[in-house]
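Task: encode each sequence below as structure tokens.

Item 1
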Amino acid sequence: MVCFGFGRSFQKEGIPLVQIVVRDNNVEQALRALKKKMQREGTFREMKRRKFYEKPSEKKARQKAEAVRRARKLIRKRMQREGAV
């Protein structure tokens, strides 16, 4: 038995790319694996973000804030690397 999760990326036919194989009728284990894969793919974060309409100005501000956060994180990592060497 194969379970499908609906992630961000779909093939042209509409078949989701996240697939879980249920072995020995162990559905609980398959659900845990599906949840983990969807978490890694960022599906839950995407669903939460798309729950309500986001105005283009809000989207732009959010993306800018994310970029600033990424840049700060990169600088912090570089400083740690240089300090350790």
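Item 2
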Amino acid sequence: MGTDRDQHQPALSRTARAKHSHTLINKTIPSILRGNARARRGVEAVELIVDPTRHDEHPTLTLTSSFHPQNTSNTAPQPAPTVTPPTRSITLTISPTLFAASTLSKTPSPSPIPHRTPPPRLAILNMASPLRPGGGLLTGATSQEESLCRRTTLYPSLHEHFYRLPEVGAIYTPDVLVFHSSSSSPSEEQDQTIDDKKDWFFIDVITASMLRFPDLEGDEADIEGRRYAEQKDREMVVRKMTAVMRILRAKGVGKVVLGAWGCGAYGNPVGEIARAWKRVLLGGPGSEQDTVGSFGEMWDGLEVVFAIKDAKMAGAFARAFGPELVVVDQPVTSVPSEEGAEDER
């Protein structure tokens, strides 16, 4: 793998990418699906889930008490049980989505959910177009969604009748086969190849859309100072994120790759998105978890990785999120040209 973007071969034109995408959709992916029953079942099991309800179960929430049955003769008041807060892992990596997913698939979960069989699932967020399956895949666009559809069996599950995507809700596709992760190809030409089968892996994909072109206030040059002009947009973002997390929890997901959702072509402020994710994941004012005396929907036992390709955006995201987000070193020294253009839509 090269160590500098200048070593990459020239990027494919948009027309060439569109032609390659048509070949993938019409020939390559159908051939892969014919030879892989699990991937076929995943496409068949796709669901459109609208405005999911709250789940109050806490599979890993444990009670710690100083009360012992053998001491029941003691009439002194016993201390009330104390609740051990649920554990979560929230990190940020400067990498493409599928590279982060590939890395996560090879590491054991730090806080597995006890008594759960099968093991917790690995999922990624497809930051999608609300209007068209695959966004601009067939016209050669290079946002995150198009990249996912060129490297996985996701696209056949994105049925036309699911669109327009719901404001609150998502398409959920289990067992999506990744046949080309972003860790091995230094150019778009080589990106057209397929990985050795030993390197294939499965993920679940949740496909959902963020606000498009919201009204903003603040200096356009200040990436961290831009804010939503309307409180209703801030509230809708939290609703969208909460819906995604509810679906992930209901599906038994233990590891998930998220992103700076909507901070690319759709113009959402990175600081607002980071703070919204923090409210949803950790609780706080404006979140569905802001409930006195309750941990609310705290997504206990979940390992969250934010994968953000753009280093400047990743830095702004981390600063807005705060110290609860751990920024990890990224071992990638070179990324494919297509992924280099990947935007968060």
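Check on item 2: The first strand starts at residue 47 and ends at 50. The radius of gyration is 21 Å.
End of task.
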